[in-house]
């Protein structure tokens, strides 16, 4: 059984739920922007709750940064139809309920597992957002 395909609204709603800021695993890591998953972070505490990878969508490598942010910015918008979000799975900490996005970057000579916490205020809810809006 595959993970359910989530929309931007689903992601916003999930990330807007109350979470416990005292979780020792999540509190020790910021992950406000895309980062390599550190060995000190307990990946086993996360459960995949859905995906943003639409199997019917074209591969998109374009990023969405209307305010001059970059992929590495703490305040970069989370636009689910754009890279790297469209290649991400949605995970939730089973202890504190914090929501994360995870994807794997495949470079020429490396594989890098990346993670970013979902801040609801950064989720782009404009449903008509597409690569034509760049």
Features:
134 residues, five-stranded antiparallel β-sheet, mainly beta, 9% helix
Layout of strands and helices, then pairs:
Elements: H1 8-15, H2 24-27, E1 35-36, E2 46-51, E3 89-93, E4 99-106, E5 111-117
Antiparallel strand pairs: 1-5, 2-3, 3-4, 4-5
What percentage of the residues does DSSP assign to strands (E)? 15-25%
Largest beta-sheet details = 5 strands, antiparallel
H/E series: HHEEEEE
Radius of gyration, Cα only, in angstroms?
A: 14 Å
* Count of discrete domains: 1
Tell the overall outline.
globular
Q: Helix segment count?
A: 2
Overall mean confidence score, pLDDT: 90
In spatial order, strands of the major sheet run 1-5-4-3-2
Number of strands: 5
Helix fraction by DSSP (H/I, runs of at least 4): under 10%
Distance between the first and last residues' Cα = 35 Å
Low-confidence runs: none
Helix-strand makeup class? mainly beta
